[in-house]
Amino acid sequence: MDQTADIVIIGSGIGGASLAHSLAGTGRRIVILERGEHLRDAPQARDDRAIFLEGFYRSTEEWLGDDGQAFLPGNYYYVGGNSKFFGAVMYRYRLEDFSPRPHMDGASPGWPITYHELEPWYERAEAIFKVRGDPTQDPTEPPRTGPYR
After folding, report:
1. What is the pLDDT of residues 111-125, one digit of tens each?
2. Which run of H or E residues covers position 18?
3. Beta strand residue intervals within 40-88, DSSP E
4. CA separation for the pair 132, 147 (Å, rounded)
């Protein structure tokens, strides 16, 4: 397979799909690399108990919590990423999520950008997905430059 791309997007979840949507009209050759396979149709695909309580589609990948205990995060590795199961909720990362954080084996370096640099892009993504609601109801909601459109 000898093909070239101008842009490679890693993952087809909310972020990757939003980026692909935004770049679609540019004439660039865009490839999305996805770790997962297509979600196969099954009765469990429309069963909230099977998905969220029984973990029917959940990965068996284990993470370690602050207490050193292993747990299964709510990650799903399918085409479309976690957006296949996201429950119509689109939170923004909080200000502190971009800062260095202590971990069991050291600290993460934090993000190379700040929340404020990313905030206009949250605005654009929320417009694409027609996000609605009252952000003042959540006391942890980070600052925003404008209301939902």
Report:
1. 999 999 999 989 988
2. helix 14-23
3. 63-64, 70-71
4. 9
